[in-house]
């Protein structure tokens, strides 16, 4: 080796290879509907089906889904906040939602998970907005602060007559009915109408599912909607 060669400083280059891929974008699916519509059952079944495909799938709920939000859940559903009126309830839901998003939903979506949630911001729009007669501008302002850009990719509205929903809810809860299940039939009829109007107003996001059938039939209708809109079998995570 010559003196010139010995004096050169060797340059070491890292091996050239493909850059690591970013995780596929997560998907956010919410379930809405009146009391007794079977949301919890269908949330669980959809999560299990997605997980069975090898997808990272998370099941959560509102109010709740994080430590702070679960505390607020007890306060709201016990009826303790009802005397304060719909404005106070909407503010409590917003506070719970903010914690739920920061602690649970956004971290899961950022890692590419499919998040399946039992209720979300649409419930505040309907329960406190439509039925509580709160100004829509206030509801939108609360959403802007808490939800921001973290909007559902798909919302499945489970629909059935109020009478049937209350019968199911009573069979499930008995004497332990929560603050909203204890409302009268006229309240629940208005609730159903409001959710149906929501689905009609936002068809690009919402799918109305007939929840009168047995759980297997409803689950298949749910899956058909998810497959058509979000195509979970695709490896690139792209929606149709």
TrEMBL record:
The keyword Kinase applies. One of its GO terms (molecular function) is dTMP kinase activity. Residues 1-24 are annotated as: Disordered. HAMAP family: Thymidylate_kinase. Residues 31-220 form the Thymidylate kinase-like domain. Its EC number is 2.7.4.9. Pfam families: Thymidylate_kin. Belongs to the thymidylate kinase family. This is Thymidylate kinase. It catalyses: dTMP + ATP = dTDP + ADP. Phosphorylation of dTMP to form dTDP in both de novo and salvage pathways of dTTP synthesis. NCBIfam families: DTMP_kinase. Keywords: ATP-binding, Kinase, Nucleotide biosynthesis, Nucleotide-binding, Transferase. ATP binds at residues 33-40.
